[in-house]
Amino acid sequence: MMISEKPSTTTDGHLAGHDARPSVGRKFTRAVIQAPLSAQIALLVVMFYLFVIVFAPLLAPYGEAAVVGDAYAPWGGEFWLGTDSLGRDILSRMIYAARNTVGITFIATVLAFVIGSSLGMVAAVTGGWVDQTLSRLVDILMAIPLLIFALLLLMIFGGSVISLVLIIASLESTRVFRLTRAVAMDVAVMEYVEAARLRGENMLWIVRREILPNILAPLTAEFGLRFCFIFLLVSSLSFLGLGLQPPTASWGAMVRENVMLITFGSITPLLPAAAIAILTIAVNLIVDWFLNKTSGFSK
Amino acid sequence: MMQRINDAQVHPILEIRDLVIESQGRPKGKRLVDNISLSLRPGEVLGLIGESGAGKSTIGLAAMGYARDGMKITGGQVLFDGVDLLSLPDRQRRPYRGARVAYVAQSAAAAFNPAHKLIDQYVEAAVVHGVLSDAQAREEAVALYEELGLPNPETFGNRYPHQVSGGQLQRAMVATAMACRPEVLIFDEPTTALDVTTQIEVLAAIRKTIRDHHTAALYITHDLAVVAQVADRIMVLRQGEMVEEGDTRRLLEQPEQTYTRDLLSVRNLHKKESAPDDTVLSIRGVCAEYHRGTQVLKDVSVDVEKGRTVAVVGESGSGKSTLARVVTGLLPPTEGSISLHGETLSPRLRERDRKTLQRLQMIYQLPDTALNPRQKIRDIIGRPLQFYHGMQGAALEKRLRQLVDMTELGTDFLDRWPAQLSGGQKQRVGIARALAAEPDLIICDEVTSALDQLVGEQILNLLLSLQRDLGMSYLFITHDLGTVDAIADHVVVMRKGQVVEQGAKSTVFAPPYESYTRLLLDSVPEMDPAWLDHVLADATPQG
User: Fold this and answer.
1) Among B361, B370, B419, whose Cβ lies nearest the Cβ of A12?
2) Angstrom distances, CA of residue B424 to CA of A9, B358, B365, B460
3) Segment B54-83, tens digit of pLDDT
4) Same domain for B283 and B224?
5) Partner B contacted by A30 (CB < 8 A)
């Protein structure tokens, strides 16, 4: 042996012998400290929302649907943010609505990803008629405007929480399918996937161990974005009266219920709208930060 | 002929003094080019040679006053005709680039815009720099195309990049770089991506053109034999530092540094043939096609015996990699059969059982894509052990250690990620993964062609020692005849999907030659500055 091989440090900057890897928790803490200010604020905002969601019954002064006073009581005094047309406390309803709206959005997003990404990876790995059938089906579903399609399906199946979650998840899963299939195809042509195939591995192994770890970064980013879209969709449907049914509180429905207060110069109906907007922006900022980090453009 | 300019009085056209280039990303401040000085007189050709990471391309770009993203020129001067390009603002540097110093990249296919005709891309540089009018440039293009030996020079430029062959495209690129009649040309591995027979044409065209136009050139390559044909002087680089510089003939005949001697001796590995034994793999009359009607393999029959290496040689498009796909079952043959130890294999991968799959393993060309970046080395090598042999716990750990030992890696590699390994180390992991299955036969698909020559030779040595110790059989696919000499017992020469000739290495590589085999053999550059002249002289009477 004439020349000993030196580990390459040119392309990726990783040095061989970098064995002591910090724990996940510590890595995360360090990443947060180094994150841009916008992402740090966004993380604080999201943590505040999570806090409210978890401790909603303790934080809310009154029950979710309890009629506790006169209709349209003003801000201050006994009811910090006043009451609505039925005399329910707006602050309490805002807090419970966080639970309902964010909770349903989260479940629907997770479900959309489970359906979309697994089918997407199967299509990418299998190819042939399986891929063709799934892809064309998704094309057809995507050709129909989402909101209108969702409204139609909700009319047919009724506005129960379960049907709401299932309808939104299956419609949004088409978008996830598209992305997953595209990124998984790039990975599926790699020689290590061919090596696994030649070894005789089944599809589940190939998808779970060879493909999924390599497409996790774009999928995580997509999860954040998709969460925002579904969140807005759930709110829109509630605003239109086809989402969560009363007396369950949801931000979209609260905007509609209190919209006439605007004419009296009260900004109360804007509060749930602001709650929606702030969470959407915060999640977007976190996604941006994550995308920058994984694509290597951060300093 | 070699030394056209002996006049030391001539002022150098390009002079680089104490050039330092550092990396900007991680690891910051690493010296990629360390104190390099060189000078180039008009009409002189300087060869820059070294393995990947030697900094040769970085120096080539720095000669135009340019540094890639993530690198910064932190010291030294680049004097072009007495003007320091590095001290000029970007705007004043631009008139030099393309007009007085031009660049020929390794991949012409990536350098040309596929949406424009070749001649339009030729004309662009000359017109933008205001050197020629559009009509003049078009006229000169035809003359240059003719000089470079391109077919139908009058109409050649009307084609799009995808309509010409790789060798023609590379020559068109040389023509385009010559458009403004630059004083200095920088060639960055211009023939590396080409087949050996094409390489000769391009090499001869490049040499003729720069001589006729008295152009100075920096010729960057990793192949000493190639650079010996064009360069007056050679500079050997290693990890950003100069190892040695000298006149071409002197450097080849009396290298002063050990590293240069290692580079020179790299092709001296030679395997003695071993006697045939039991047949392991038998390919009989195999035909295959990708799309209906386009046949890529025609009646191919090859046998591989135990403990022997069968090398399948051929240029790109010869069907040698397709043969590997057919053997592994990825592409079912339309005719013919494949058997392993006399047992006929199912043509389709899906229909083969685990035992069959275990007996046939593969090592890939590109170590970067052959290992999953999200699995540790332990998991990559361990999986076949669990999958085929059900190993677990202490037995698995013991076998893992044995395997990394056999591939000369060391146990601390087990807990690393592929990104932390060099190309040669990754290839060793690929070999360990194949060995883990305990196969009867390993298919090696161009396993050394993505590696530096010295590293590639170490990999070949490893494969040879494994063959001696374990009696392993290899089906070795390669385009490089030097590799064939190093490792093969039996040679199969393929062309356009057919076997042109096959036999023991000593018969195939000895007179009387089959004509295509002879062409291939003659096309391999030798470490002799006069080699290209001889080949061209031999070829003229026939052509």
Assistant:
1) B419
2) 13, 24, 11, 11
3) 888 889 999 988 888 888 888 889 998 888
4) no
5) no
